[in-house]
Design a protein that fits this description.
The protein has four helices and 21 strands. The chain has 391 residues and is an alpha+beta fold. Strands 2, 4, 5, 7, 8 and 9 form a six-stranded mixed β-sheet that branches. It has a five-stranded mixed β-sheet with strand order 17-18-21-19-20, covered by helices on one side. A hairpin with a 2-residue loop joins β4 and β5.
Length: 391
């Protein structure tokens, strides 16, 4: 009986041992792991976006800040949030807050966290939201936008390069060619000044119109002066409000006017050293202009073979308001000076191949002004050398 019981116990023990060897042990689970469920993802979508393509913090008149619209999903569960603005050179500006105040918009003025102006370039804004234990943290990034504080620039092309408005329909076309930029050109204006620095004519346009034609007449209807240079200033405004200046010059060619007994060139426009007939000893840029103008004058006069040439010098009177001093100035200074300057141009024409025997000169001082010498803005026109061609 006892032997039978021992055999049964042995069989039972073997079955237990085999069962333990064929059953895989379960991994141990901590109490904290067993108590914490997986953190859920917040339903809905958080967003940060701007409708602007870019802005310029330094614009004179335009978009100086950029605004972002913010959308917080599950706003009641937000513990904290952050908006980081970053570009090619890293993070520039950071905004932070908690769940007690969730802004619907944010505005950036283009300054870094330290208060300096952020560099120009392409940027994005990233909204990061922390929900604590309620949901997993989420983030959203805006589309790229531009910070561009560079003033637009470019060139102005003239056609023809030398403008000579003699006949009706003679025009010069001024074309604006902006330099490459992140910001697109929005509008422009052109200001043309006379040689005395007075505003002579203005134009304006909206891009993509890039050119305008001019007949050479000013605001008052007066025509440009022969052989003068008219300064040209273009103001370029880009889409963000940056304004840049492009400066150029409209050179006026020798204007030959037909008259009853021949032709007249109102002005040969040569710059002389003050109170002398020397046109060499002047600033280098003026000396270069003198050489070019005298070359053009000689070529123009050669187109009228058989015509006698009279060069008449004119001057500006300083003492126009004092008859006594004015008379002394006229006789002792202005007449001799205007005569000497006419002689200097005659010599220049002879050096350029014209027959000096066909050229006569005279000087009339301030006796035949185009405008009163008291007109300080426009009396520069009186300082001239007129040329007449007669058979």
């Amino acid at each position: 009986m006892k032997k039978t019981a021992d055999i049964a116990l042995s069989i039972l023990m073997c079955c237990f041992i085999v069962g333990c060897q064929t059953t895989k042990p379960k991994p141990a689970t901590s109490a904290a792991q067993a108590a914490a469920p997986a953190q859920p993802i917040a339903p809905g979508q958080s967003l940060i976006q701007t409708e602007a393509r870019g802005f310029s913090p330094t614009a004179e008149n335009g978009r100086t800040t950029i605004e972002f619209a913010l959308l917080f999903s599950n706003a009641d569960a937000v513990k904290s949030w952050q908006v980081a603005i970053a570009g090619d050179k890293g993070s520039q500006r950071t905004f932070t807050g908690d769940g007690s105040k969730l802004p619907s918009t944010l505005e950036w003025d283009g300054k870094t966290d330290s208060g300096a102006l952020a560099p120009d370039g392409s940027y994005t804004a990233t909204l990061s939201i922390d929900y604590g234990d309620a949901f997993k943290a989420v983030s959203a990034t805006s589309t790229p936008f531009i910070l561009d504080s560079a003033k637009p620039t470019g060139t102005i092309k003239l056609s023809p390069v030398l403008f000579s408005p003699i006949n009706p329909g003679d025009m010069v076309t001024m074309t604006i060619a902006p330099a490459a930029s992140e910001a697109k050109l929005d509008s422009w204006s052109l200001e043309i000044y006379d040689p005395g620095g007075n505003l002579f004519k203005t134009f304006d346009g909206k891009w993509p119109t890039d050119s305008v034609a001019w007949d050479g007449k000013g605001i008052k209807g007066d025509l440009v002066v022969s052989a003068e240079d008219y300064p040209l200033v273009a103001k370029l405004r880009d889409e963000f409000g940056n304004v840049g200046l492009v400066k150029s010059t409209i050179p006026i060619d020798i204007i030959v006017i037909k008259e009853a007994d021949g032709y007249r060139i109102p002005n040969s426009r040569v710059y002389f050293k003050a109170f002398t007939a020397d046109y060499h000893d002047v600033a280098p840029d003026l000396a270069a202009q003198n050489s070019t103008r005298l070359d053009r004058l000689a070529e123009t006069l050669k187109k009228f073979p058989g015509y006698k040439i009279k060069i008449l010098g004119h001057a500006v009177m300083i003492h126009w308001d004092d008859p006594v001093l004015g008379k002394i100035e006229e006789d002792s200074v202005l007449v001799p000076l205007s005569k000497a300057r006419a002689e200097a141009i005659k010599q220049a024409m002879a050096e350029r191949g014209l027959d000096p025997a066909m050229i006569e000169t005279d000087g009339v001082g301030a006796a035949d002004p185009l405008v009163p010498d008291s007109d300080y803005a426009d009396r520069w026109q009186n300082r001239r050398t007129a040329i007449f061609l007669v058979k």
